[in-house]
Design a protein that fits this description.
FAD/NAD(P)-binding domain, binds flavin-adenine dinucleotide, six-stranded mixed sheet, alpha+beta, eight-stranded mixed sheet, elongated
């Protein structure tokens, strides 16, 4: 027990209302002694971008974070994938099936439109705690331990804790890392990608009817490139992605896409419906662009005093492992667990130290593994290349480490919290 238990609510500011911030808010607002407020820089709480895949482990983490998570995912239009089918996309072995990952899994992978997932995560939150048009500019530590957070509009709030869920180029991360922030900033992961969401029937006609006889995620592995398609929005929409190896990342991360550029990227795939079809779908959108993938190569800490970082602010990863959102869900599970034991603002430092100790090694493991998975999925992993016989054993174990005994993990969180409190 804390010797300074308080009956006034503990004021928590979550900076950023993306999937990580919304999940955490949905988790923490249920704890009675917390006053949770969410501050989002954009004029509305909204998600850009296409779909997101949630493997069974990510769904399990969401289930530990918030009640009725299955209903939430169903309301968000999640589509269950029979497997992730990986196939060779170019060259002599084109068309050869490498593996059906997660086939017959107890919790099959789900695909969701990002905007729908965010909408459902925010749905139970009162509008009075969601503040749009609030771009955080600075955090100041006060003598009494509280924090003053100042926004671009000139307003300031006083709170007991700040949790930065403000994405890959996070301001809160800069505060937490201080002088070391530049050294540990996100940098190119070595790949780019572009995505589009198109109506189901259009995708079926363009990519080939045979790929729609069952709800599957397809990943096509070719020479230095990868094409993926899967189904979202209650089977009304299809996401199509082209990714490729990137030798040099352009300034501003943005690559303008033309037919000529994509034909060159997929030159070994042309004449096959999948290569030609993916190019058609990607180009059939306003101002098509690709983006360099960035990730965090290292992060010395996720917390400083009563400030911590979660989601992409803490551990931005390339998408190859399909695990970024699952990691944000695990962040929420650990913070929920420790905050259930926080009785006064004095306990927050220990809570954030416990969170950092548990979450940081795992976040980094996902980031590093994801980059390696990207090399395999673009046919460029050393000693593997595009050889089916070598790809199978190389890919087989890459997702196993994501499985976590969450009950045991929560116990560890409480133990670490008690240890740090006693120091
Ligand atoms: C191309 C791509 C594909 C992916 N696919 C998958 C996948 O299939 N499965 C998966 O699990 N993960 C995937 N990921 C990872 C996943 O998308 C991210 O991990 C996740 O969306 C991160 O959410 P976030 O809330 O941490 O960050 P963000 O979504 O970036 O949200 C941050 C929020 O903070 C706000 N903000 C920023 N600065 C401030 C400020 N100063 N003040 C207030 N608010 C601020 C922003 O406006 C934004 O709303 C993918 C990532 C990429 C790039």
């Amino acid at each position: 027990m804390s010797d300074t238990t308080t009956t006034t609510p503990i004021r928590i500011a979550i900076i950023g209302g993306g999937i990580a911030g919304a999940t955490l808010a949905n988790t923490l607002f249920r704890i009675p002694n917390l006053d949770v407020q969410v501050f989002e820089a954009a004029p509305t709480f909204s998600e850009r971008g296409a779909a997101v895949g949630l493997a069974g482990d990510a769904q399990a983490a969401l289930n530990h974070a918030i009640p009725s998570s299955k209903e939430l995912l169903a309301k968000a239009g999640a589509v269950s994938m029979n497997s992730t089918r990986l196939i060779i996309g170019s060259g002599l072995q084109a068309g050869t099936i490498i593996a059906d990952l997660h086939e017959n899994a107890e919790n099959p992978g789900l695909i969701l439109h990002r905007a729908s997932l965010l909408r459902e995560l925010l749905a139970p939150l009162s509008e009075s705690i969601l503040h749009a048009n609030k771009k955080l500019e600075s955090i100041k530590e006060n003598k009494d331990g509280s924090l003053s957070i100042t926004f671009k509009d000139g307003t300031t709030n006083q709170v007991d804790a700040v949790i930065g869920a403000d994405g890959i180029f996070s301001s809160v991360r800069n505060h937490v890392l201080g002088d070391a922030a530049a050294e540990h900033a996100a940098s190119p992961a070595g790949f780019w990608d572009c995505r589009v969401m198109v109506p189901y029937e259009k995708a079926k006609t363009t990519l080939g009817e045979e790929y729609f006889d069952q709800d599957r995620q397809y990943g096509w592995i070719g020479d230095q490139a990868f094409v993926m398609h899967d189904i979202a929005e209650s089977r009304t929409m299809v996401q199509c992605v082209i990714s490729a190896v990137e030798k040099e990342s352009p300034e501003g991360r943005k690559i303008k896409l033309t037919r000529e550029y994509l034909n060159e990227v997929l030159k070994g795939w042309l004449g096959r419906t999948i290569g030609d079809g993916a190019i058609e779908l990607i180009l059939d959108q306003e101002d098509p662009h690709a983006y360099s993938q960035y990730d965090h190569k290292s992060t010395p800490t996720y917390s400083k005093g009563r400030v911590c970082i979660i989601g992409d602010a803490a551990h931005a990863t390339s998408p190859w492992q399909g695990a970024g959102v699952g990691q944000a869900f695990e962040d929420a599970v650990v913070l929920k667990t420790v905050f259930e034991h926080v009785l006064s603002p004095h306990d927050i430092v220990a809570a954030f130290k416990a969170y950092d100790a548990l979450r940081r090694p795992r976040g980094q493991q996902v980031i590093d593994s994801s980059r390696g998975t990207g090399l395999i999925l673009t046919g460029t992993a050393e000693g593997v290349g595009l050889e089916v016989a070598k790809m199978r054993p190389a890919l087989g174990p890459r997702w196993a480490f994501l499985h976590l005994d969450l009950d045991e993990y929560k116990k560890q969180a409480v133990e670490k919290f008690e240890d740090f409190k006693g120091q």
